[in-house]
């Protein structure tokens, strides 16, 4: 994974890494990770809508100049709330999509723990058709590399999902990808600045 800019000591842009607000999938306690399920279904829950209203009204981070988001419904709706508040266009980016959980898609979210146990052993595993941690890291880092190559002095809000963002933060911190669950869990609608 040749991340030219990610390994550089100087960053050309600032990033705000945002997890989508509480979703209908969170509310139902199920895993929604495939485009077939997530692109047009399982958007924000009423709780998520309230979270976003509070986040934008009490915005405590640098004002974004660009908003880039996973094209899943829950991330698109999250990004749209921020975009409307700041009068910015949305840029959909498939590289920010949810990690695909294979056979566990549409299953109870208690199944996450089974996958994470495998993650701690190997960042390359594809057990039960799950997308490898290394693959998630590569596509997430490629998104940032792209912005580092073509933009400068921007504040870019990246709206994605819990697992991909924790994997990205692990990669950015230059820690072994098998340790991504050691990252503090990202709450719905939370924002983590980088660098």
UniProtKB/TrEMBL annotation:
User: Could you tell me the superkingdom of the organism this chain comes from?
Assistant: Bacteria
Q: Which Pfam family would be a valid example here?
A: His_Phos_1
List the protein's name.
Histidine phosphatase family protein
